[in-house]
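Record 1 of the preview.
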Amino acid sequence: MKNFISMVCFLIIYGCTNQLEIDKGKVDKAFNKTNLPFAVLGVSLDKNDPVFYSYGDSNPDAIFEIASMTKAITSTAVMQLVEEGKIDLDLSIEEYLPEINQIKILNKDLSSSERDIPITMRHLLTHTSGFVYFFNSLRVMEDLGMSPGDWPQPEALSPDEYDWGFNAPQPRQIFEAGDRWHYGRSLGIAGRVIERVSGLDLDTYFKENIFEPLGMDRSGYNLSQSVRNDLMPMSMRDVSSGALSALPSMRPIPMKRFYGGGDLLSTPNDYTRFLQCLVNGGELDGVRILSKNSVESFFRNQLPEGMTLKHPLVEAFNRPNDSPQRTVFDEKDTHSYAWTIEANPNERGKRPQGVGAWSGIYNTYYTVDKERRIVVVAFMQLLPFNDGEAYELYREFEDLVYDSLMK
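->
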């Protein structure tokens, strides 16, 4: 009932105005509470031009490493190919990538076994495939001889650990597909399927089928030197003192192999256009990149009944689910084919149930509210992930957006 009343109020307000009136002084105050060197916060309503609030040396056309915000673009590409009949969500991905058979299930005792359940694209899109990141699985870390916080150096890896073309050790599957949710490298494998069935590398596919149609001319894996000159610098926070220090980029130039789970460069303006297209049913400025039915799958829970994002505490997520500080997701939330779906009835803040959200490891964040046709973005560049100041700035700004709907 509460969400219904909120939606009715929104429709009344939207009928009178197509602009959100956000108190800039409150946005400034939220940023000034942090020691972040820069940030870009943005909001769009319906198909209107987004409004951005830029701090430090940043601006809406600055280049950011968006990391896992790449995943929603990969999901969009997958669904385009589903619509063309080139990908079947429920067909074993062995039909597209026979070499997936090289990878066995890594058991708790570090022995390996054959899988019994075929992995499908549906499993990949929902992170229920069993493929995880090395840095968010203690089992995989142990198998690699690593400790939490370690990052493998290329010279320390054998060639077969790079034969998937990813910039991290070869994928490990740690449970049968469909058993549970565990965030990982599934969208990287989905990217490989896209390349195989389309005959194009991801850089070209995204450019021709998503970026160029939407006018996202400052997005891609490899951008011109003149555009890369606008890349925002990266920082690392000392978790003890809170101090920030410069972090040199480890990005290879040019990038020759493309990962569907990360690595894209984009701008707040470009990425907001992409999200606007989705909250408006797959079309923007008269250009349609995805059907309404496919877009709807991004805004519905796609996990099996009773499954949520319950996740063990690992280094990658920075703090436990019961922390007093808000986190990117909690164990009540669910997942669509593109991002998490808010499902915690006790969520702190103004975010309604059913709203989508996700992020990138360098503290870039977004909210997508199809019901109210709202997009919220927050772009920063620092580690570790889910930085307290960065995430709270994003959520405070999101709260101001929802407050503005009720004025």
